[in-house]
Amino acid sequence: xxxxxxxxxxxxxxxxxxxxxxxxxxxxxxxxxxxxxxxxxxxxxxxxxxxxxxxxxxxxxxxxxxxxxxxxxxxxxxxxxxxxxxxxxxxxxxxxxxxxxxxxxxxxxxxxxxxxxxxxxxxxxxxxxxxxxxxxxxxxxxxxxxxxxxxxxxxxxxxxxxxxxxxxxxxxxxxxxxxxxxxxxxxxxxxxxxxxxxxxxxxxxxxxxxxxxxxxxxxxxxxxxxxxxxxxxxxxxxxxxxxxxxxxxxxxxxxxxxxxxxxxxxxxxxxxxxxxxxxxxxxxxxxxxxxxxxxxxxxxxxxxxxxxxxxxxxxxxxxxxxxxxxxxxxxxxxxxxxxxxxxxxxxxxxxxxxxxxxxxxxxxxxxxxxxxxxxxxxxxxxxxxxxxxxxxxxxxxxxxxxxxxxxxxxxxxxxxxxxxxxxxxxxxxxxxxxxxxxxxxxxxxxxxx
Length: 449
Description:
43% of the residues lie in helices and 15% in strands. It is an alpha/beta fold. The protein has three domains: 12-232, Rossmann fold (3-Layer(aba) Sandwich), CATH 3.40.50.620; 236-332, Tyrosyl-Transfer RNA Synthetase (Orthogonal Bundle); 344-353 and 362-449, RNA-binding S4 domain (Structural Genomics Hypothetical 15.5 Kd Protein In mrcA-pckA Intergenic Region, Chain A, Roll), CATH 3.10.290. The protein has a six-stranded mixed β-sheet, with helices on both faces. A five-stranded mixed β-sheet has the order 11-17-16-13-14. A two-stranded antiparallel ribbon has the order 7-8. β5, α11 (207-221) and β6 form a beta-alpha-beta unit. α10 crosses α11, α13 runs antiparallel to α14 (287-294) and α15 runs antiparallel to α16 (319-332). The chain is elongated, with a radius of gyration of 25 Å.
C-alpha cells in the first residue's frame, strides 16, 4: 500500500496552517527545516472502536493527504491493539469494551474507508502511505518487561497534569485506561525504530499522548533523537457544537449508517458562518477558488454550500453517488408542484432518495413536490413547527403533528425535528424555501413571497 520514494517540496507546514490544520507543534522551527529539506515519515493513529469512521475523523485524513502531496510519507495505525484498552482522551466515562472479533472486523472496515479516501484524492501512483495494525507489536509484549523497560520512563505526577486525566479523575479513571498513554507512546517508539518515523500528528486532545511519545523516544534512543508532534484544532461549528454531531448522533462515512444523500445534505445545510472554514478544511479546492465562492454572503453562499457538499461526498462515496445526491437535492428544492415538468402531485413520478439519518430506509422523493407560500413577515416573527405541519396538510391537527415529531417522523430541510415546540424562522430558508417531510414519502415545500 505504499509507493516509491517521492521528492519533497517546501511549504507543507504553511499549507496546514492556511487550511486550518495547525494547533500546536513541538520544535516547529526544526521540524519546518527538516520537512522543507527532505521527506519525513509521519503517522496518525485511529482506533477501530466502531465499524465506521465519522466526520470527526476526516481532519487527520485531510491533513495527511496534504502532507503526502508535499512528498512526505504517511503511516496509518489502525489500532486494534490500543482499541482493546480504550483512549480516555475527550471521554467522560470508560468506553464499552469490545470483543476481539468486533475490533478486528471494525479494523478491516475502517482500513477500507481510509484507503478509499486517500486513493480517491491522491490516485494509485501518488499515494505514499502504509497502513499497519499495532497488534503486530503490542500482542508480543511481556507485561513485566514492558513495565521495566517502558513504564519506568513515565511520571505519574506528570501524567496526572494532562487535561485528559484531570477531567477523568473527577468521574473515574480505570487502571486499564491509565495505561493507554504508555501504549500510544510505545507505538511512536516502535515506528521510530523500525520505519524511521519522526512525526506524530493528531487532534489537539492527543497533545499529551503525542508529547509523551516524543519524550519516550528521547529517553530510549538518546537526547539527540529527533522526533516531533503536531496537532490540529478540534473543529466546532459556529454554534459551538462539535463538528460531525447531529441531534441524531454522529455523521458516519459508511453508506450503511448514513446514506450518501443524507451525507450530502449534512454539508449542504451548514451555517453561513462555517462555509469558508469548511471549504478550506474539507475540500482540496485552491484558495483562490474558495475566496471566489465565499466572497459574497447571503443567498450567494448557497452555491458554495452545494460545492462543499459535492466535493466531500465525491471523496467519501464516489462521483456517481455524489451526482445522484446533488440531483436529488436540486429536484427536491426545484419548486412547487409541476415545476420539474413531471406531472401533478401524487402522479407517482419521482426519483428514489434515501430517508433521513437513522430512519433505516429509503423513501420516494417526488420531483413534483406540492407547495404553498409564506409571507416574509410571518416567517420573521417565527411559526411553530406544529402549525407549519398542519398548514401544509401533512398533519390533520397539532396533536397529530406533535406525535409525528415525538416519533421521529418530522424533518425540515432533511434535518429531523426533535423539539415539538421549535419555532421556524428565516434562518431555516434554503434557496428561498423550507422543505417539510412527514415520514419517508410525504413532502411539502413552502416558498417565501
